[in-house]
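User: Here's a chain of 331 residues. Predict its fold as tokens.
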Amino acid sequence: MQQGLKKSFCINFQQIIVLTFLFIFGSCCIAQNQFPDRPIRLIVGYPPGGAADFVARVTADQLSKEIGVSVIVDNKPGAGGAIAADLTAKSTPDGYTISMSGPHAQIKALYPKMALDLEKDSVPITNLATGAMIICTNPQVPYKNLKELITYAKSNPDKIFNAASGNGSTPHLASALFSSIANVKFSTIQFKGGGPAALSTISGDTQIMFATPPTVMGFIKNGSLKALAVTSAKSSPAIPGIPGALESGLAGYNATFSYGLYAPIGTPNEIIQKIFQASQKAMALSSVKEKLASQGMDVTLSKSPEQFMAQLKTEAPLLMEAVKISGAKIE
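Assistant: Prediction complete.
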């Protein structure tokens, strides 16, 4: 009798364990299949008003329509995007917190001592957009093109005040790389974002800035700022009427920026794929391409998360070398 009870108890206990496992596993599968069922947080490591914020809000708006829930942009600027990357990596890997940033190799190069290992703590989803920056000045400066700027800067070292949109930001690196290649010296003033930097240049407190197109296109069109060149070697179809650096007389200079989507490590592949597919549909729309083109950027989607990862690995040594050559340092 007791042996029968023990046998029955063992069987029942084993059944309970199996049923519990099936319930948990089934619940996880259902949760993934039902994803998303609440708003998604899109962390952006840059302040409002710049290129990253523009791309993030266009992406969030279209992604919301494709995925069926609100995608809410949450600006967490600072440390060249490292703060946002850290927040994302430490978030629950359930797809409800993702981030948009530039290549993580750039952050790693600028913050070599940071505890966060971006390659191990983040999952690349897809690249979104790529663009060149614009070298622009206050309209009242005595130099009217890139050659004249370089000549003036060499004759007046440190007398041109350069408005940078944050220490370690892409425009900051672009200006530092420019200084290195053109062999000129600027007095760089750091601002909290491209918007404040642009206002400083417009007012004449600073004379020059390297800016992402969304930050300054409107100011260039209304004459508040003057565009000298784009930071790519050749002119960009997305920024018509502005020559490239090589065309303007500076060989060997090429600086572009890009933004992509990332998720915390451990995010289920099914969820990564859902976000990837929704992003593909959202950003491939002609209306979206037109919006980004109006701000000097091109939609450049990855073919797969794996292809995006391969791209990032290929670009990493180049980005880290660019940071080294530029001499950019995080204070």
